[in-house]
Amino acid sequence: MRFVRLQVTTALLVLALLAAACGGDDADETADSVEPQATDAAQTSSTTSTTVPIPQDAVPLGDLQIVGVQFGDTGFVRVQNRGTADANVNGIYICQFPQYTDLGTVVTRGVIAAGAKVEIPASAVGGLTSQGGEAALYANNADFGSPDNILAYVQWGSGGARADVATAANIWAGPGVSITPDPSFNDIVLDGDPADPEAWS
Question: In this structure, what are the phi and psi dihedrals at residue 135, rounded to the nearest 5 degrees?
Fold first, then answer.
């Protein structure tokens, strides 16, 4: 009799353990099936939060280009906005290594109107000599060695230090390419594609 009761008790205990184990598996499966849904919801929320509309008053930066260089103490770098919208040039830097100047500090109201040209004084780029130099425009002052930041470039005579950056950005023909100024004139002027040395005279 005791043996029968022991068997029944053991059988009931085994059944109870099996039921508990099955219940645990169901709970785990439910948790597993809920987890991906929670992850999906988080991804949707993240995607939505990183989608930022363009401000209605945003003005795209115009096509800024260096179109001329006048040599000497009273010389200048001529910059043109070839775009169809006025260009806010605050944070746009003009440079001749190692000097960098924010155009916003030297251009009236920090804006170059669509189609307009401005003359940046030689002092803003450390002087301009026909013997050799460079002029470059950069989108920011974070990394002047990055081709992602350079907007325009020209070098003449003995050249400058950023031709390799301009070449990597595909806006200059090569690190060793330099304009030879005509000794009859005191400047170089762009007439055509700025990346084509033949367009400078």
Answer: -145, 135
